[in-house]
Each structure stands twice: as structure tokens, then as C-alpha cells.
From TrEMBL:
InterPro entries, per the entry: 2H_phosphoesterase_YjcG-like, Cyclic_Pdiesterase
Domain of life: Bacteria
Keywords associated with the record: Ligase
Keyword Cell membrane part of the UniProt annotation: no
Molecular function per GO: ligase activity
Name under which the protein is recorded: 2'-5' RNA ligase superfamily protein
Length: 167
């Protein structure tokens, strides 16, 4: 079973983002808007070991701000909000890619931090639909927790653990 680790932020004051995801992201019913910190992986590491690793990696971290810069299409036809790298996000990413997840560190190199809004196939009018949201960039959101997810074979999501970051 694939697993992944995500940074979670509150979108309650941005209902337009969730409405957009609901229309264009088939993962909407399975997982809230998120920034993937460790992309889906299949390593022979127990859930308990991953939870312990997540706990260790988040110790001493506080909630932190991320800046969403602009909407763009990726080379593999995903539509996302790019996130400006920050020292705290980079530190969290580095920590998570150590220990039992060290084999994934090379794969993470060069990944663009982002919030996925739509997945292929993208409709031709997607950009126009997004512009109707009238979002003004850049804007910030606060990462308040880290989520360890198991991805079920049929695409569902199972929360294995969540680590709150104090304000």
C-alpha cells in the first residue's frame, strides 16, 4: 500500500478553492487540500515506525506560513498553486527524508512545492474557470498539521496519523 506525508492548512475561508477542487480533482472526496511533503512511496517500513518518525520530525516545529505564488500547469498536466519554498518547509522536508525514508531523498530533489487543484485530463477552459475565482497572488496560509496517509488501491485515503504544530 502506498503512503504519503502532507502538510495541512485551513481552507475554511477559501471555499472557492475547495469548490474548484471538487469540480476538477478526483481526489477531492478522499483528502483535503494539502501540500505533499513526501510523495507516495512503497517502502518496507511499518506504519508504527513511520508514525514514530513523523513524531520525531515534527518535534520543536511550530505552525508556519507558506506563500502561494501563482496557478500553473505542470509538465504532466496537473494544475496547481505553486508554493514559495521557506526555510521551515525545507527543514521539515529534509527531516522527513532521513531515517526510514532516506531512500526517497533523491526522488524529492527538485520537486516544486505545490497545492494540486486539478488532475488530468484537464478541460480546455480550466484557466478561465480558475480566473473566475478572483484570487490575488501572492497570499499566505498557515501549515497547522502534518498528515501521514495510506493510499488505498482503489484511490481512497486512510489517515494513519496527524501531528499538530502548535501556533
Amino acid at each position: 500500500m502506498l503512503r504519503a506525508i502532507h502538510a495541512i492548512f485551513d481552507t475554511s475561508d477559501l471555499p472557492c478553492i475547495e469548490a474548484f477542487r471538487k469540480r476538477f480533482d478526483p481526489l477531492f472526496p478522499h483528502i483535503q487540500a494539502h501540500l505533499t511533503v513526501v510523495f507516495p512511496f512503497d517502502l518496507p517500513v511499518s506504519d508504527e515506525a513511520l508514525l514514530a518518525h513523523g513524531q520525531t520530525c515534527t518535534e520543536g516545529l511550530r505552525a508556519f506560513s507558506m506563500e502561494l505564488q501563482r496557478a500553473e500547469c505542470s509538465t504532466d498536466d496537473h494544475f496547481w498553486l505553486s508554493v514559495r519554498p521557506s526555510p521551515t518547509l525545507e527543514e521539515l522536508t529534509r527531516r522527513l527524508h532521513e531515517g526510514p525514508l532516506a531512500p526517497l531523498a533523491v526522488r524529492q530533489f527538485g520537486a516544486t512545492p505545490h497545492i494540486t487543484l486539478a488532475r488530468p485530463p484537464l478541460p480546455p477552459d480550466l484557466q478561465e474557470e480558475f480566473l473566475k475565482l478572483s484570487l490575488h497572488f501572492p497570499f499566505s496560509r498557515t501549515i497547522t498539521s502534518i498528515l501521514l496517509e495510506a493510499i488505498e488501491p482503489e484511490g481512497g485515503s486512510l489517515e494513519l496519523g496527524r501531528f499538530s504544530l502548535p501556533e
